[in-house]
Write a sequence for this structure.
């Protein structure tokens, strides 16, 4: 596997673990920048839906993105770390140049699926970090990579009510890369948890 992509994916997984680790039981019901999800729902999405789908995707197969998440166990961090280890093992053995199906028809190299996974993890790290007011320093290189990739891939028809992504939220000039990433994915970068 391409060392730079593998390194970024591993960093994205490590960052996600660092954001999940300090979550306290009393924070599970806190709201998040994803309006319909509280902290527990968002962690369930990442740990029990994204990771299993990422594993299928890394194998070159097509996951059913509409399937509900698996169960989220009591130890969120351990469940995430187990899935992350399995995912990295699959990617380490993968041929990134292998052609795989893409949404809408056609084929593209498997490596694009790693880019998608890095992006998904970077965005949701911002979500959880903001919701729980964690002091984890988010890796700007992951957000830069996610923003560059998603600006090429996220088309206007995927945005809006009842779509996977909200309308882009404009951010002020000079905003941090994570604020720009959040705005690009339809989050309000000024969102703060309720006092």
């Amino acid at each position: 596997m391409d060392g730079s992509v593998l390194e970024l994916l591993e960093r994205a997984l490590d960052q996600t673990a660092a954001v999940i680790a300090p979550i306290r039981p009393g924070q599970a019901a806190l709201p998040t920048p994803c309006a319909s999800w509280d902290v527990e729902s968002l962690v369930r999405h990442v740990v029990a839906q994204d990771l299993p789908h990422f594993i299928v995707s890394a194998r070159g197969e097509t996951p059913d993105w509409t399937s509900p998440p698996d169960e989220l166990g009591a130890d969120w961090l351990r469940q995430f770390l187990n899935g992350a280890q399995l995912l990295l093992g699959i990617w380490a053995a993968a041929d990134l140049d292998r052609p795989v199906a893409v949404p809408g028809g056609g084929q593209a190299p498997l490596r694009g699926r790693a880019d998608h996974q890095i992006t998904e993890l970077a965005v949701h790290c911002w979500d959880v970090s903001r919701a729980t007011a964690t002091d984890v320093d988010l890796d700007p290189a992951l957000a830069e990579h996610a923003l560059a990739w998603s600006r090429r891939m996220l088309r206007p028809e995927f945005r809006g009510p009842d779509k996977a992504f909200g309308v882009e939220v404009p951010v002020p000039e000079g905003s941090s890369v994570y604020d720009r990433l959040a705005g690009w994915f339809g989050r309000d970068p000024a969102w703060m948890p309720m006092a």
